[in-house]
Amino acid sequence: MRLADRIAQCQTPFVVQSAKDHSLTNLNGAADFAAEITRCPARYVLSDDLTRLCTALAYSKGARNLACADLLRVPSERVWVEWCDSAWLSELQLYGFKPPAKDQCGSGRRGVLIKSWCKGRCGLIRTFWSVGESDLDLLASSMEAYFDLDVGDGEEPDPPDEPLRRALCVSDTASRNTDILRRCFRFRYERTWAKYYQGARLTAQQEEAVARHALGTIAADIPMLLAFLLLLSTRTGLPQRAPMLERLNRSRARAGKAPLLDHIEVLSPILRDSRSPTGNAATSFRRAPRLHHVRGHLVRRGSQLFWRVPHLRGDARSGVVRTRTVTWTIGQDPSAGNSIARAQPHGTH
User: Which end of the chain, N or C, is surrounded by fewer C-beta atoms within 10 Å?
Assistant: First the structure.
């Protein structure tokens, strides 16, 4: 079952018990978002191929910068996006992220709920994931992210409420001056979680360890989500289909089950294969390099985005690399004033 459907049907509150006095505390969790996700006007479900592509766009060399920030917009005031955990985690490992623990093998699903304003340029994000089949296995991040894509250098994104609540900044030290997370995003504990940790009287070391763990449940999702929003802004770049659920929901209704939510399945754009059929390479007097993987990277030049797809290079017996560059051309929509794509992504030699 889709993560959105599971959360929409979740009725189990997230309650924790103190190890000291055994008191119970009700914390904000997945069940508190059941109504919001049910009413959400736009729900996207990413295919595994698209999940891998967006993760590669987010974490490949040259992609983590502000060059495309002016093209990013959340398409609706409320948007739900979900994907398969295993596809996301396997791609992350290609870019240096540690593999998950054995008890978190990536068999579940992940999702984000975005609430936006200012024409989709500002908003609030919360992440969710599943680790099992019961309501207790539906988890929500204790932290939320708020953002402002129009914030200037040296400025801070404005929190949507409660400005005195402590906010944390996440940055990439390798690209600090062009890091969109550092400039445009801030992270903070959700209100009930902030109050809970304040009452726990943690030491400074414990506070830092808890904060790092909490950030790990949300911060890594943001770049991948931004890559999806960037591709979604192209006019024909992402194939979409809406599953027909009427017949299935009639059957569920007869069985006394809740109906499944409408959603849009979003697929990866059709990219030409990065390797040709096996053949002989051009004759060279140099020793052929070992077969190796070349990381992809995203570059913007004026009105065009160039995605140098990940590809293999080396021994000719594994094929000759041909199509390595995908181009999205960005133009101006005169009626809306927003940047949109005018052409289908295509490969070039």
Answer: C
